[in-house]
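Recall that a protein's primary structure is simply its ordered list of amino acids. Everything else, from secondary elements to tertiary packing, is in principle encoded there. The following example makes that idea concrete.
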Amino acid sequence: MKSDFIPKFIKAIIETGKDFHEVWQWQALYYKGFQVSGFDYKKTEKCFRNLQHREIICKTSGDYYKFTTKGRKWFSNSVLRHPRLRYDKWDKKWRVVIFDIPEELHKNRNQLRAKLKNLGFYMLQKSVFVIPYPCEKELGYVCKNLKIADYVDVILAESVGFKEKEIKKFFNL
């Protein structure tokens, strides 16, 4: 998703603690004029110019950038808008998310499905998703923002039925 790129990119740089060049030093592979993989310097430069224009980052010296006050606020809001599950050791319990969202809120329902997939949930049915890790806090935040909290439930289960072997394989358990 394009809206996730910048927060993921900046977070990756911060978490690794490496400088920009060390993280992105590989070269792009071109095939018949199309970039197949690798780092596109022009796109990154354009992204940084965009962030500078929006006063989210400012150039300090050379090729180094830092967040402005506005940028720190923007980044913290971006992290809140795009929550990520923190996976701990599996406690042998399954979180089964079920929802029955009315047709009037079909856009919100589709957004919830997309977000659950993005967070790494396994889709058991169109309105039933499974994950082996605690997710209640992040799910509550997503449902609150989509205004569908009344239509979503989480069930803590010891088994997910006949597909448990397949689901365990999906989560590498």
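The longest strand covers residues 94-99. Residues 18-32 have pLDDT under 50 and may be disordered.
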